[in-house]
Write a structure and sequence with these properties.
Length: 86
């Protein structure tokens, strides 16, 4: 099991694990991620013609920590994860 890097309450960035078109898929992924990772949550994005549910994890204070956290998720099979700023 990988050790999850320590996270801070003052955020600078998150990791986007997946964008889903349906709330059911997003909720299932969020639940799965929450079993192992901190701060799994869903952000709703309205593109104007469609609603997307962005499943994010983490809450890192700086980009170095985000990069470390990103590598942990990639090693666990979430190969399309990437950093997003709040």
């Amino acid at each position: 099991m990988h050790r999850t890097p320590k996270l801070f309450s003052e955020s600078a960035s998150f990791l986007l694990a997946k964008t889903a078109k349906g709330i059911g898929r997003a909720e299932r992924l969020k639940a799965k991620l929450a079993e192992k990772y901190q701060n799994a949550h869903i952000m709703i994005y309205d593109s104007g013609d469609r609603i997307y549910y962005r499943v994010r994890v983490g809450r890192c204070q700086n980009l170095n920590m985000t990069a470390e956290y990103e590598e942990v998720l990639k090693k666990d099979g979430y190969t399309n994860v990437f950093t997003v700023a709040e």
